[in-house]
Amino acid sequence: MLSVRVIFDPTQISRPTAIALGNFDGVHVGHRQVIAPILPTSLSDRYPNLTSTVVSFSPHPQEFFSQKQRSLLAPLDEKVALFKALGVEQLVLLPFDADLAKLTAAEFIQQILIDSLQVELISVGFDFHFGQKRQGNVTDLQNIWGDRLTVVPEQTMRFGEGEQPPVRISSSNIRTALAQGEIDLANSLLGRPYNLVGRVVQGKQLGRTIGFPTANLELPTQKCLPRDGVYAVQATVNHPDVETQSQILGVMNIGLRPTVDGDQRSVEVHLFNWQGDLYDQMLSVNLIQFIRPERKFDSLDALKSQIQSDCQSALNYLPPYRQQMVMSFPRNLYGNVIPS
C-alpha cells in the first residue's frame, strides 16, 4: 500500500486534484462518506489524472481562535495512517494562521482551491463553511463546480434498543461518548474501535509487586482520552525488529491511581498471558468496553482483588467481541488482520 504524502508546502502539491475538504478529526463513519468520492477507486474511470487529496487545517481553526490546545480523536500520525488505509494519495495541511483566517470566501476559493490546488472535484459535508467568519458555504462551491461538487448530507445511525432517536455521526458526539465511558457508542460512530497508540515507558513498577505488571503508555499530548477508569482492551505489540505482531487481550486503567497516591494521570495496560520486554516499543490499544470508574481502595490487597475481578469482567466482554472484530473491523489502525 502506498504512503500518504503529507504536504505543508503548497509548491509540493501534486496537481490537479480531487479534494475532500474538512477537519476530519477521528476519520469517523461520516468523514469516510465525504472522502469516498475522491478516492482513486472512484476516480479511475472518469478522472484518472486527478490526485486523491484530503485538504485540512493545522492547527484546528478552533485551536487558533481560542489559543488553547485542542484534544484530538486522531493526532496527525494516526490520521495519516487512517487516510492511508482508505487509499488517499496526499494530505494537504493548510497553515491556519491570521492570513488564512482573513481570507474572504471568494479569496479562499480563488487563491487556495483554484490557484494553489487546481481543484477539479470537491467533496464536503453539508454543513461545511469556509472563509472569513465562516461566510462561505456549499452554495458558493456549487456555483463554480456544479455537478463536480459532492455534498454529503447529515449522517446518522440508530444505536441501542427500542425506539431511540438516531444519533448524529459527529466528532463531538464521539467525544461525549468517550467522556461518559460509552465505548460501544463511540466505536459505532467511528466504525472501528477507539484506539490509543503510544510508546511503553518506565513506570513505578508497582503493578508487578501485586502480580499484575502493566505497560505505561506515553501518548501524544493532544490525544483525547476517555473517562477515567478500567477498560477491556485488545492490544497490538509492534515489535521494531520483527515483521509479525502480537495481539493480546487485557485491561487498561486511565487515571491518577489514588490507591498508591498517584499525582499524574497515566494510562497503564495489563496484558493477559504476555511475557517479554515491552519498554520503548509501540503499543496500539483498542478500547472494547468500559468496566468501572477509577476509585481508591483501602489497601493493595483490596486493589489486587479488584484487579482480579476486572480481568474476569474483561474476559466476559472480550470473547464474543473477538468474533465481532473479525466480521466488522477486519484490520486495525496499521492494517494488521485481527485473528479469530
UniProtKB/TrEMBL annotation:
Keywords: ATP-binding, FAD, Flavoprotein, FMN, Kinase, Multifunctional enzyme, Nucleotide-binding, Nucleotidyltransferase, Transferase. InterPro entries: FAD_synthase, Riboflavin_kinase, Riboflavin_kinase_bac, Riboflavin_kinase_bac/euk, Riboflavin_kinase_dom_sf, Rossmann-like_a/b/a_fold. The keyword Flavoprotein applies. Residues 189-319 form the Riboflavin kinase domain. The keyword Flavoprotein applies. It is an enzyme of class 2 (transferase). SUPFAM superfamilies: Nucleotidylyl transferase (SSF52374), Riboflavin kinase-like (SSF82114). One of its GO terms (molecular function) is FMN adenylyltransferase activity. It catalyses: FMN + ATP + H(+) = FAD + diphosphate; riboflavin + ATP = FMN + ADP + H(+). Its EC number is 2.7.1.26, 2.7.7.2. Pathway: Cofactor biosynthesis; FAD biosynthesis; FAD from FMN: step 1/1; Cofactor biosynthesis; FMN biosynthesis; FMN from riboflavin (ATP route): step 1/1. Belongs to the ribF family. PANTHER family: RIBOFLAVIN KINASE, RIBOFLAVIN KINASE/FMN ADENYLYLTRANSFERASE. This is Riboflavin biosynthesis protein. It comes from Phormidium tenue FACHB-1050.
